[in-house]
Hints:
The first copy, chain A, is an alpha/beta fold.
Amino acid sequence: MRQRSGLWLMGARGSVATTAVTGLLALRAGLIRPVGCVTERLEMDHSVLPAWDDIVVGGHDIVSIPLDKRAEQLAESGLIPHSVFTAVAPGLRAVDTELRDGYHPVTHTGSLADAVARLAGDIEEFRTRNDLARVVVVNVTSTEPPVPAMPEHQDFDLLVQALNDPQRTVLPPSSVGAYAALTAGCPYVDFTPSPGIKMPAMDELARRKAVPYAGADGKTGETLLRTVLAPMFTARALNVRSWAGTNLLGGGDGANLADPEQAKGKLESKARGLHNLIGEVTAPLHIDNVPDLAERKVAWDYVSFEGFLGAKMSLQFTWDGYDSALAAPLVLDLHRLVSAAHADGQTGALSELAFFFKDPLGTDEHRFAEQTRMLAEWAAQL
Amino acid sequence: MRQRSGLWLMGARGSVATTAVTGLLALRAGLIRPVGCVTERLEMDHSVLPAWDDIVVGGHDIVSIPLDKRAEQLAESGLIPHSVFTAVAPGLRAVDTELRDGYHPVTHTGSLADAVARLAGDIEEFRTRNDLARVVVVNVTSTEPPVPAMPEHQDFDLLVQALNDPQRTVLPPSSVGAYAALTAGCPYVDFTPSPGIKMPAMDELARRKAVPYAGADGKTGETLLRTVLAPMFTARALNVRSWAGTNLLGGGDGANLADPEQAKGKLESKARGLHNLIGEVTAPLHIDNVPDLAERKVAWDYVSFEGFLGAKMSLQFTWDGYDSALAAPLVLDLHRLVSAAHADGQTGALSELAFFFKDPLGTDEHRFAEQTRMLAEWAAQL
Amino acid sequence: MRQRSGLWLMGARGSVATTAVTGLLALRAGLIRPVGCVTERLEMDHSVLPAWDDIVVGGHDIVSIPLDKRAEQLAESGLIPHSVFTAVAPGLRAVDTELRDGYHPVTHTGSLADAVARLAGDIEEFRTRNDLARVVVVNVTSTEPPVPAMPEHQDFDLLVQALNDPQRTVLPPSSVGAYAALTAGCPYVDFTPSPGIKMPAMDELARRKAVPYAGADGKTGETLLRTVLAPMFTARALNVRSWAGTNLLGGGDGANLADPEQAKGKLESKARGLHNLIGEVTAPLHIDNVPDLAERKVAWDYVSFEGFLGAKMSLQFTWDGYDSALAAPLVLDLHRLVSAAHADGQTGALSELAFFFKDPLGTDEHRFAEQTRMLAEWAAQL
Amino acid sequence: MRQRSGLWLMGARGSVATTAVTGLLALRAGLIRPVGCVTERLEMDHSVLPAWDDIVVGGHDIVSIPLDKRAEQLAESGLIPHSVFTAVAPGLRAVDTELRDGYHPVTHTGSLADAVARLAGDIEEFRTRNDLARVVVVNVTSTEPPVPAMPEHQDFDLLVQALNDPQRTVLPPSSVGAYAALTAGCPYVDFTPSPGIKMPAMDELARRKAVPYAGADGKTGETLLRTVLAPMFTARALNVRSWAGTNLLGGGDGANLADPEQAKGKLESKARGLHNLIGEVTAPLHIDNVPDLAERKVAWDYVSFEGFLGAKMSLQFTWDGYDSALAAPLVLDLHRLVSAAHADGQTGALSELAFFFKDPLGTDEHRFAEQTRMLAEWAAQL
Lengths: 382, 382, 382, 382
Ligand SMILES: NC(=O)c1ccc[n+]([C@@H]2O[C@H](COP(=O)([O-])OP(=O)(O)OC[C@H]3O[C@@H](n4cnc5c(N)ncnc54)[C@H](O)[C@@H]3O)[C@@H](O)[C@H]2O)c1
Ligand SMILES: NC(=O)c1ccc[n+]([C@@H]2O[C@H](COP(=O)([O-])OP(=O)(O)OC[C@H]3O[C@@H](n4cnc5c(N)ncnc54)[C@H](O)[C@@H]3O)[C@@H](O)[C@H]2O)c1
Ligand SMILES: NC(=O)c1ccc[n+]([C@@H]2O[C@H](COP(=O)([O-])OP(=O)(O)OC[C@H]3O[C@@H](n4cnc5c(N)ncnc54)[C@H](O)[C@@H]3O)[C@@H](O)[C@H]2O)c1
Ligand SMILES: NC(=O)c1ccc[n+]([C@@H]2O[C@H](COP(=O)([O-])OP(=O)(O)OC[C@H]3O[C@@H](n4cnc5c(N)ncnc54)[C@H](O)[C@@H]3O)[C@@H](O)[C@H]2O)c1
Ligand code: NA
Ligand code: NA
C-alpha cells in the first residue's frame, strides 16, 4: 500500500524550493517530463520511492512573498515556462497554506530550545494533519557563514544545556532547523554549505532518534564538472598545475554570496573537494554577484596542466546553467531516496548519496563516477 | 630475470613516434619524470612490465628524414625541450639504424604477400639481432581513409589467396602492416583509426598465431573529454540536445586530415563514440588544418542540453594540447601492457585496454570512468 | 509636415521580418525601449527620419503562415516576450492584410517580366492605398546560392530582352525582387548575401530610376566582431596567422544554410571581409545547423597570432545571440536612413551605410570603427 | 645627421625591460622582424624616429641579477627563443654595465632630495658618457599601491620643501623616479599604473623643464580588448548589463599583484576605463597569481548585454598572451615617439599617445579606434 510522504522545505519561498514545488506539481499534472530526475533512471525497485502524487509539501521561510508570486518572478526570468506557471498557480497557492514562519535570530525572543520546539511543532502538526508516513526536511535556506568551533557543538549534553539558556545563541539558524527536524524524528537533508547538521552533537541526536541524514551542499555546476574532470587528469597521469575558477551568478543566492563572509562556507566546500581530488594546487576561486544574470549561473574554469616532456597544456570550460533548474530535481530525488532509506530503517549519514553533494557527509569520495556507482549499488538494494 | 622487449613503430619517423622515442631515451637518462605514463601509477606488479632500459626500438617508415632531424623540428615547435633534444640526439641516431623502409603501394612491385614477407622479415631480423623476448608492433602511420567491405576481409582463406595474386591490392597499407606483424608472431597495437587489424580475417590470423592485439585510435583530446563528460549528463538525467565540435590542428596529422577523404575514418570513429554514449543527437564535427598551430591541437566543443522544466543550458570547453605529447606516453604504456599480456599468454582483442582508445576493439564501453576501472582490475591481475 | 513611409519586406513572414514588425508595433505602443536601434542614438536631425508611427508595413512571402502565428512561435523560442506578443497580436493581424504572395520560380508561369510586373504592381498599390510618400523595399528572404555570371547581368538592355523571353530564367528570385522594387521606383536594401541587386545592369536601372540602394548582408554577429577586432591586430602590428570560425545556428536560417550550396554565398561574403581586413590567412569557417538552438546563434572564433620575438598567442571568443533580435532593429534603422536619403535626392549605392553590412556595396571599407564614423558624418548632414 | 638617443629603464632587470632590450638587440642584428612595433607601420617621416642602431640603453633597478641571466630565465619560460638569447647575450652583458642601483625607501638614507639628486646624476652621466642627444626615461618598475592625496602633490613649492626634509617620505618610489627624470631634463613615460608623474606638482615641474611626458599603464591585454569591443556595443545601441573579468598571470607582475594592496592601482585603472566607455555597470574584476603560467597571461571576460525586445545575449573572450612580448615593442615605440616629440619641442602630457595606455594622461578618450586615429594624425605631423 502506498504511503504519503512529507517534503518540508526550510527556505520554502526561495528559488530552489519554488522551482522544486512548481516542478513537482507539473510532473503530477503530466505537463513536463522528469528531465534531471535521477531516481527516474536508477535501476531499482521504484515502488519504494514516493510517487509524485504521494509527496505533500510544507515548509518554513522568513519572508512572506506568496509562493505563486515567487514562481511568477521565476517565470519572468525564463526559468519556469509561462504555460506551466499558469497551470500550477492554484496548486502553489494550496502549498502556500502549509508554509510557516521560519526562525530568525533577530525576531526571535526566548531560548533556542523555544525556537526548536516551535519549528518541530510546525513539522509535527504538518505530519499529523496530512496523515503522512514520514516527513523529510530539506534545507534550502540562504547560505550562512561558517561558525567558530565551540565545545557545545561537540558534545550533545553541553549543547542541550546551552540551548536552554535564553542568553546564548550557540547555533546558527541552519543548525536550529536541523535540530528541530531531528527532534521531530524527521530525516534531514542539507542542500546548502551552511553549518546545519555538520556537528558531532547533531550526529549524536540523529543516532538517538534513529533517523538518516544526507548532505552537504548540492553539486550542480562548476563543482560537478570538477569532480568529473579531475579524475581524468589523475587517470592519465597528467600533472595539474593550477585550476582557477570564476562564478557569476544573479538571483537570491548571488546577492547573498556577494557578501564575502557568507561566501566563505561555499568557497571552502568547493576548495576542499578540489584538493581532495588533485592535491594542493594553485586554485584561485571567485563568486561574483551579477544581478542581470537573474537565475542563471555562468562558471569559467581554467585548468593548466603539464604532460610528457613538460608540455604545457590547458583545458577551459564555460558552464551556463539555470542553477535552480539543476538543483530542484535533485531536491525531489533526495526526498525520495531519503524517504526510502528511512522506511528501510537506515540511520546516520547516508554516504552513498555523495553523488548529490559538493561536500559529502560520511565519505571522502569526490570522484563523480565512483559516486555514481555507489549510488547505483545502494539504490539497487533498497 | 628481466627480458628485453622490442617496440616496432610503423610510422617511426612521425610526430607521435619521434616524441615517444625521444621521451623513452629521456626517461632512461633520468632527464624527465614519467608524466603522462599511466603504467607508472597503476597499482600492479610492476615487474611484469618492461623497464625503460629494456625497451629496444625499431620501425618502418616511408620517408627518410633522420630521426634526430625530426626531433629537432619538434623541439623548434616547442614540443620537445631543447636541453632534452641535445642530450638524446646520439640515442636517436642509434635508433635510426634500426629503421627500415615501409610498404607503400606506389613504390611496391609484386604481390601483397611479397610485401608482407618483406615487412615480417624486417621485424624478425630485428628480434633476432637484438635478442628480444618479443616485439610489439604499434601502428602510428598517417591515418588512411576507410576501405570498402570485401569478402576477402571476412574470410581468412580468401584473403590469403588474394594476397598471393600480384594483380590485386585487397588490403590498405595499415592492414598489410598488421598482417606482417601477426605473421611475425608479434602482438599488435593500432593507435590510428585506419582499417589496420579491424577485419574478421585478421582476427582469425591473430588467434592462429596466439597473439594479443589492441586498438583502435588513441584517445587524447576532444574524444577523451567527451567520454568523461557524456556519462555525467546521463547520470544526472540531463537531456543532451546537440554536441558540436571543431578541431584545429597543425603538424603532419593536420595536413593529412585536411583531406576530407582521409579525415573520414577519424570523423567516423569520433562520431561512433558519441552516439554510443548519448544516443543520436545533432553533432556537427570538423577537423581543420591550421599549420601555424604546429604540433598543438585546439578543440572546441559546445554541448547544448535541457534540464528540469525545459531549461536550456550549455557547456563549452576549449582544449589546447600538444597532441603528440599526449599520445607518446600512451604508446609506451601500450607497449608495456601488451608485452605483459603476451608474456601472460593472452590472445585476441584486449578489450580491457579500451581506456586508451576512441574506438575500442572487443568492447562497446566508451565511458572513461568504467574503462579506467576495467584497466585497473585487469592490470592488477597480471 | 510628417510624411508616412512604407516598409516593404521581401520575406515578410520570416524570423527577421516578424521580429522587426513586432518590435515596431511594440515601440509604437511604448512597450519597449529602442535598444539596438542605431538611429535613436545618432547625432542628427531626427525629423528627417520616419517616426515609428509613420512607418506602414507590407511585404511578399512564399509561405502563408499568418504573421501572428509566426510571432507566437518566436515567443515560444524566447525571442519575443510573451506580454509583448499578446499586446501586439492584433496589430500583426492588421499587417497581415498587407502581405502578398512572393515570386517563386517553381510556381510562376510566364516570363520574368511578368513576375516583375506583378511584384511591382503589389508595391505600387500598397503605396497608393496607404498614401505613402515612398516605399523602401528590404530583402530578408532566405539566402540563395551564388549565380553563374552572365552577360545579361552586365548589360541592362540584354537583361530586359532576356526578361521578356518566357523560356529563360536569367535572374534568381532575389534579383527579380530587386528589379521589381526599382521598377516601382523604390529604394532597395539587401539584408541578405543573395545576388539581389549586385549586378551592373541592376545598378544601371537604379540610376535610371534615380533611387538609392544599400547592402549587402546584415552584419550582426561573428563578422561584426571580426571587423571590430581585426583592425586592433593591424594597429598593433601583430601578425595574425590564422582565424578559424564555427557558427551554430537553428531557426529557418540555420536549416537553409545547412545546405552547402545555399551557404556558399554566406561563407563567401564572410571570407571576403576577413581577407580585406588582414590579408590571406588560414581561415576555416563553418556554418552548422543545430535546430535545438532555435533562434539563437553561437559563434566561436579562434585567432592565432604572433607577436614580438615570435611569441605565439591567441584570442578566442564565443558570441551567443538571438540573430533576429540583432537584425530586426537594423532593418528599422535602414528603412529610416534610406527613406531619408531618398527624400534627400540621393541615388545609387549608399556606401556610408557600410556599418550595417558584411559585404558593403560601394566601398571596400570593412573596419567597423571607420564605418561608424562614415555613418555618423553622413547622418549628420542629412 | 642621425643623433643617438638614450632609453633609461626604471626597472631595467624586470620582465618587460629585459624583453625590450633583448628585442632591440635582436632587431639591430636582423634576427627578428619588428612584429608588434607600431612605429614601423605608422605612415610618417621615419627619419625623425631613432633607428634601432641609435638607441643606447641604461637604467635603474633594485635587484642585481645580471641582465643576461634574466633573459635566460625568460628563454626558459618560452618568451625568448633560445637562438636569439644565445646571439644577444654578449650585448646584454654590455648593457648591464650601464645599469645602476635604483632608489628604495628601505635602503635609502637621507632626504628624498638626496635620492632624486643621485638618480638624476646617474642619468646625466649616462647622457654625457654616451654623447646622447637626449634620454627618455621609461618606468617599468613593479606596480605600487595608490598613495593618499597630500597637499605636497598639488603644489610644487610645498613639494620641494618636503623633499628636502630628511624626516619625510612624501613621494612613493615611482614618483621619486619621475622627479629625477624631469630634474635631469628628460622626457618621461609611465608604463605602470603607479603614482609616478600623476600629480599636479609633477606636471608643473615638467612644464618648467619644458619636457613632454606620456602614460599611464601600458595597454596590452584585457583592457586593450575592452577599449576595442566596448565602442561596438555603444555604436550598435546595445545595452551592456555587466562585464566581468578574471586575469590569471604568473611572472614578477603576477607575484606582485597577488598582494591586494599592490593590485589596487591596477584594478582602479582598469575599472576607470570601462566605466568611461560604457557607464556604470556591474563589473567584477580579479587578478590572480598563477605561477605556473610563468610569463603568460590568460584573461577571460564575460559581457552580458541586452538587445531589441529585451533579448539577453553574451560575448565572452579568452586572451592568452605573453605579457612582456606585448609590452616590450610598445616600450621601444614610446621611446621613439617621445624622443621625436622632444626633438620637436613638445611639452607636457602627450595625449595623442593614449593608444598605448590603460589610463591615458591628458585625455579621457578610451576608444581604441579613436586613439589609433589620434596617433596616426599626430605622427603624420611630426
Ligand atoms: N544549484 C543551486 O541552486 C544550488 C546548489 C547548491 C546549493 N544551493 C544552496 O541552496 C540554497 C538556496 O538557494 P536559492 O537559490 O534558492 O536561494 P534563495 O535566496 O532564492 O532562497 C533562500 C530562501 O531561504 C530563506 N531563508 C533564509 N534564512 C532562512 C531561515 N533562517 N529560515 C527559513 N528560511 C530562510 C530566504 O528567505 C529565501 O526564501 C542556498 O544556500 C544555495 O547556496 C543551491
Ligand atoms: N594525439 C595524437 O597525436 C593521436 C591520437 C590518436 C591517433 N593518432 C594517430 O597517430 C598517427 C600518427 O600521428 P602523427 O601526428 O605522428 O602523424 P605524422 O604525420 O607526424 O606521422 C605519420 C608517419 O607515418 C608515416 N607513414 C605513412 N604511411 C606509412 C606507411 N605505409 N608505412 C610506414 N610509415 C608510414 C609517415 O611518413 C609519417 O612519418 C595518425 O594516424 C594519427 O591520426 C594520433
Ligand atoms: N542576424 C540575422 O538574422 C541576419 C543577418 C544577416 C543576414 N540575414 C539574412 O536575412 C535573411 C532572413 O533571415 P531569417 O532568419 O529571417 O530567415 P527565415 O528563414 O526565418 O525567413 C526567410 C523568409 O523568406 C521567405 N522567402 C524565401 N524565398 C522567398 C521569395 N522568393 N520571396 C518571398 N519570400 C521568400 C521564406 O518563406 C521565409 O519566410 C536570410 O537570408 C539571412 O541570411 C540575417
Ligand atoms: N604587458 C605588460 O607586461 C604590462 C602592461 C602594463 C603595465 N605593465 C607594468 O610594467 C611593470 C613591469 O612589469 P614586469 O612584468 O616587467 O614586472 P617585473 O616584476 O618582472 O619587473 C619589475 C622590475 O622593477 C624593479 N623595481 C621594483 N621597484 C623598483 C624601484 N623602486 N626602482 C627600480 N627598479 C625597481 C624590480 O626589481 C623588477 O626588476 C609593472 O608595473 C606592470 O604592471 C606591464
Ligand atoms: Na539560485
Ligand atoms: Na610580466
